[in-house]
Design brief:
The complex is a heterodimer of chains A (409) and B (141).
Chain A: H1 2-12, E1 21-22, E2 25-26, E3 28-29, H2 40-53, H3 63-82, E4 91-94, H4 97-112, E5 118-122, H5 131-140, E6 143-147, H6 160-163, E7 168-174, H7 186-195, E8 200-203, H8 215-218, E9 222-226, E10 237-241, H9 243-246, E11 259-262, E12 267-269, H10 283-299, H11 301-320, E13 325-327, E14 337-342, H12 347-356, E15 359-360, E16 362-364, H13 369-375, E17 380-384, H14 391-408
Parallel strand pairs in A: 3-15, 5-6, 5-7, 7-8, 8-9
Antiparallel strand pairs in A: 1-2, 4-10, 9-10, 11-12, 13-14, 14-17, 16-17
Helix pairs in contact in A: 2-10, 3-10, 4-5, 11-14
Chain B: H1 3-16, H2 21-34, E1 48-50, E2 55-63, E3 66-73, H3 76-89, H4 94-99, H5 104-108, H6 122-139
Helix pairs in contact in B: 1-3, 2-3, 3-6
Classes of the chains: A alpha/beta (409), B alpha+beta (141).
Bound molecules: pyridoxal-5'-phosphate (PLP).
């Protein structure tokens, strides 16, 4: 544990915001599933881009434009390598997971979904992996079906075979649940869906920052994630898609960059991935994402997993000692997200008070209302860990909880 | 000075006793616990004001020129704040309720709880109280 702590101190020094005080106390930031903090290299990348390189890409013949275009496309190649995509043209830049899913749901349903068809999601999805599919279903006359969960906070695949029907056109599930941290058995879901020729979309927003993801090994057909949850800037995200599918999807947004030639009679669309990137993209965000990925790789994905797992086990043990704590997930496979309730204290009350102790956690339904309905609770208190969190911060969370409990006695 | 402002001054005075935030919250929790829980029959979908994080139920009656509010919340701190608002606005005339800007909240340090970003339903509750007052005023004029 000791060399671990010195590792963590080294990592913490890379994140300037961690030196902030809130309410006169040192910030304890345990809301990483909402967004992670940014290391200095990512912050410097943004500032250096605007200080030395800023130009519009893919269209200029001048020095800066060429340089910016090259950096942007190099980032795309690095990101493709990071998730082991077979080609960088399978990487589409978006604003984040939400936009990735909207892009996919809209274009996929226009290409493949018709009245009477089915879209399969799970009971534990984030609203952004439910609502875009509902919109697509509404437009096409399809219905949205749901893979259920059990009381441990795990998906139940017993009836998956009967949920995958001849009418199912796509399965859309998260890799990891944002509200509970459960790692879903997506390998089995993908295998069973593929046996019936059904493509699978994976929402990786809560997975990519915690362990290595290999989209070819998973064999998922689409995968999405957000930069801001993996140490990169806000406003940048990725949709990965197998080329064979992306090539069959109609354009999403129309505009510059996504076309080859435009006549009023007919427009010829550009090749992948540019066809899905209309308008001037978020160049600094892409470079920031590239820098964040380099930072994660230099830290080491195995080490990230190890640090987080150690701290997660420490947190579970420490929180478990507090009388009245109820963990909402007892799933066997989990990331470092801990969702819990304290006795009968409403999560909003607990969150309001814990905040005053300088501890940032999240309370509420975590954009997963169907899941909260299933658990019959108004929300949870969620502590979510990242590579820079340390045991003493867990101790501070526990102290805050104990004081809050006393206030409600 | 109208009655709402008078009550507001009392509330300011009560909250000024507290030096640190914990005492203030302890008082809110106490208020929350002492606000009578409204009858189950009021906890209906139509009385529900849905904040993103906590729920507030509000019902209103009109009696002798005054609006009587009853309210409840599933979160205690929200309920404590609800009780402060009820104390100021219940049993007042529609005109007073509609006109009052609740400026006393600024001086109690409670104002932050009414910000739209809190998503606890309190801001919508105040709007709803004013709407009820307006409706009673129109109906009875
Ligand atoms: C599982 C999951 N999917 C999708 C999203 C949406 O991500 P974003 O808001 O970055 O688009 C989130 C973010 O909370 C999430 O946790």
């Amino acid at each position: 544990m000791n060399h671990m702590i010195s590792d963590i101190e080294k990592i913490r020094a890379d994140f300037p915001i961690l030196a902030t005080n809130v309410y006169g106390k040192p910030l304890v930031y345990l809301d990483n599933a909402a967004t992670t903090q940014k290391p200095q290299v990512v912050i410097d990348t943004l500032s250096s881009y605007y200080s030395t390189m800023n130009a519009n890409i893919h269209r200029g013949t001048h020095y800066l434009s060429i340089e910016a275009t090259e950096a942007y496309e190099a980032a795309r190649r690095n990101i493709a390598a990071f998730i082991k995509a077979s080609s960088s043209s399978e990487i589409i830049f978006t604003r984040g997971t939400t936009e990735s899913i909207n892009l996919l749901a809209d274009t996929f349903s226009r290409a493949f979904i018709k009245s009477g068809d089915e879209i399969l999601v799970s009971e534990m999805e984030h609203h952004s992996n439910i609502v875009p599919w509902q919109l697509a279903a509404e437009k096409s006359g399809a219905t949205v079906k749901v893979i259920p969960m059990n009381d441990l906070g795990e998906l139940v695949l017993d009836n998956l075979d009967s949920l995958l029907t001849t009418k199912t056109r796509i399965v859309a599930v998260a890799h990891v649940s944002n509200a509970l941290g459960t790692i879903h058995p997506i390998e089995e879901i993908i295998r069973k869906a593929h046996e019936k020729g059904i493509p699978v979309f994976i929402d990786g927003a809560q997975a990519i920052q915690h362990f290595s993801v290999d989209v070819q090994q998973l064999d998922c057909d689409f995968y999405a994630f957000s930069g801001h949850k993996m140490y990169a800037p806000m406003g940048i995200g990725v949709l990965y898609g197998k080329e064979k599918y992306l090539n069959q999807l109609p354009p999403y947004h129309g505009g510059g960059e996504m076309i080859k030639t435009v006549f009023f009679e007919k427009t010829i669309y550009n090749d992948l991935p540019f066809r899905f990137e209309a308008g001037t993209p978020n160049v600094s965000g892409v470079l920031g994402l590239d820098a964040a990925i380099q930072y994660m790789l230099e830290t080491g994905m195995d080490k990230i997993e190890k640090i987080e797992e150690n701290l997660y086990l420490y947190a579970l043990a420490k929180l478990g000692e507090i009388d009245g704590i109820r963990f909402l997930s007892r799933a066997a496979h989990k990331t470092s997200v801990i969702s819990f309730l304290i006795g009968t204290i409403h999560p909003y009350d607990a969150g309001t008070l814990i905040d005053h102790f300088g501890v940032a956690i999240r309370t509420g339904h975590h954009c997963a209302q169907p899941l909260m309905d299933r658990l019959k609770i108004p929300g949870t208190i969620r502590a979510s860990l990242a590579i820079y969190n340390k045991p003493s911060e867990i101790d501070m969370l526990c102290e805050a909880i104990i004081k809050v409990k006393q206030m409600f006695l | 000075m109208n009655t709402i402002d008078k009550i507001g001054d009392q509330i300011i005075e009560e909250f000024s006793q507290f030096e640190d935030w914990m005492d203030k919250y302890n008082y809110l929790i106490e208020l929350g616990k002492s606000l009578p829980i409204i009858d189950e029959k009021f906890r209906t979908e139509s009385n529900l004001i849905n904040g993103c994080q906590s729920k507030v139920w509000l019902s209103a009656d009109y009696n002798d020129g005054k609006v009587i509010f009853k309210a409840d919340s599933d979160a205690i701190i929200t309920k404590g704040l609800v009780s402060v608002l009820i104390r100021a606005l219940s049993n007042q005339s529609p005109d007073e309720i509609i006109m009052n800007e609740l400026s006393f909240l600024d001086q109690t340090g409670l104002k932050a709880h009414l910000s739209p970003t809190r998503s606890n339903g309190l801001l919508s509750m105040i709007k709803q109280m004013k709407l009820y007052a307006m409706a009673f005023k129109i109906k009875n004029s």
